[in-house]
Amino acid sequence: MQRRSDAARQYFTDHVVEPFTRMRDEVEQMMGDIPTRWPSPYPASRLATLAPFPAIEMTETDDTYKVSVEVPGVAPGEIDLSVQQDMLVIKGEKREEHEEKGRDFSRSERVYGSFERRLRLPDDARSEDIEASSRDGVLTIAIPRDSESRNAARHIPIKGHEAAK
């Protein structure tokens, strides 16, 4: 009986444990061949600037809606801002070049990408009076509100059948 359990243990070791041990050894050897300092193509600090859609923050007051759009590295002349029907459309193209040289490496990157954001304008927005400015990579859009439209409200009667008594 002891011979059978020894044979089963040997079979398990040879056919299950050993292949995984060899695979682990090969992976460790491959990892040892990788240089300790791989230059990252997109450092974490730049990931946000490579996003296809710029970040937007919206706030409102009694008189104005304010939209702030993060567009670092994009010149104001490279941004197309328009109103199409009831949509505010923000279009542009981000072009960025980066070169880094170190003692043992050299890296050059070029990042190009178009973006477009569409925001539905509120019913009380006065689209003909929208103004925009840009400073330090932030596009600020001021959308005036129409006080008459904002305060307009009407009661809507509900039609229905009376419940049976």
Can you describe this structure?
Residues 141-165 are annotated as: Disordered. There is one protein chain. Mean pLDDT is 79; it is low at 36-40 and 42-49. 25% of the residues lie in helices and 36% in strands. It has helices at 2-33, 44-47, 147-151; strands at residues 56-60, 64-70, 79-84, 87-101, 106-120, 131-135, 138-144. Strands 1-2-7-6 form a four-stranded antiparallel sheet, with no helix packed on it. It has 165 residues and is of the alpha+beta class. The protein has two domains: 1-34; 44-151, Sandwich (Immunoglobulin-like), CATH 2.60.40.
What's the SSE blueprint?
Elements: H1 2-33, H2 44-47, E1 56-60, E2 64-70, E3 79-84, E4 87-101, E5 106-120, E6 131-135, E7 138-144, H3 147-151
Antiparallel strand pairs: 1-2, 2-7, 3-4, 4-5, 6-7
Total number of strands: 7
Overall number of domains: 2
Computed structural class: alpha+beta
Q: Count of helical segments?
A: 3
Radius of gyration: 31 Å
Strand content: 35-45%
CATH topology of the largest domain: Immunoglobulin-like
CATH architecture of the largest domain: Sandwich
Largest sheet properties: 4 strands, antiparallel
Order of helices and strands: HHEEEEEEEH
Helix residue percentage:
10-25%
Structural shape: elongated
How are the strands ordered across the major sheet? 1-2-7-6
The mean pLDDT is 79
Give the quaternary arrangement of the chains.
single chain
CATH class group of the largest domain: Mainly Beta
The end-to-end distance, rounded to whole angstroms, is: 86 Å
- Poorly predicted regions are 36-40, 42-49
InterPro entries: A-crystallin/Hsp20_dom, HSP20-like_chaperone, HSP21-like
Protein name: SHSP domain-containing protein
Family: Belongs to the small heat shock protein (HSP20) family.
Pfam families: HSP20
